Amino acid sequence: MGYEDRSREGFVPEGFAVPEGLSTPAFRLVPLGPEHNVSDHGAWSASIEHIRATPGFRGGDWPPAEGMTLEENLADLERHARDFAERAGFTYTVLAPETDDVLGCVYIYPAPDEDHDASVR
Q1: What's the rounded Cα separation, in Å, for the pair 11 and 65?
Q2: How many CB atoms lie within 10 A of CB 10?
Q3: What kind and span of H or E run contains 93?
Q4: Which residues pair with 109 in a beta bridge?
């Protein structure tokens, strides 16, 4: 079972205020959405080997070794935006503060096991 497959009901309490982002001198976090398709796709597709070797991604199936089309990536971003809107999971894109270049992503989803509340990658 993947980190996004477990039941998401009750992931965050009803009154929990989900952060809409974070700005620091080193980076900005904003909710990942379809508007980031081209820059997101370019960033991760240029770093597939690095990402697949990173703890939390090692041994997984993302990102696909063969990459994805822009259309496939768009569908993935639409799913993340839907999850965010439904409070089922929260994905933020990490942007360089001056250029908005994509530096990475932060994924916060229900943990795949019963021992933890969330998985953050």
Answers
A1: 30
A2: 10
A3: strand 90-95
A4: 119
Residues whose CB falls within 8 Å of the CB of residue 10, separated by 6 or more in sequence, listed in order: none
Q: Cβ distance 94 to 27 under 8 Å?
A: yes
Sheet holding 22-23, edge to edge: 22-23, 28-31, 90-95, 102-110, 118-120
Give the bridge partners for 102, in sequence order.
Answer: 95
Give tens-digit pLDDT for 37-56: 999 999 999 999 999 998 88
SS (H, E, C) 20-50: CCEECCCCEEEECCHHHHHHHHHHHHCCHHH
Beta strand 22-23 with 118-120 is unpaired
Q: Span 102-115, mean pLDDT?
A: 92
- Residue 79: strand, helix, or coil: helix
- The strand pairing partners of 94, in sequence order, are 29, 104
Where helices occur in the chain by DSSP H, the ranges are: 37-45, 48-52, 70-85
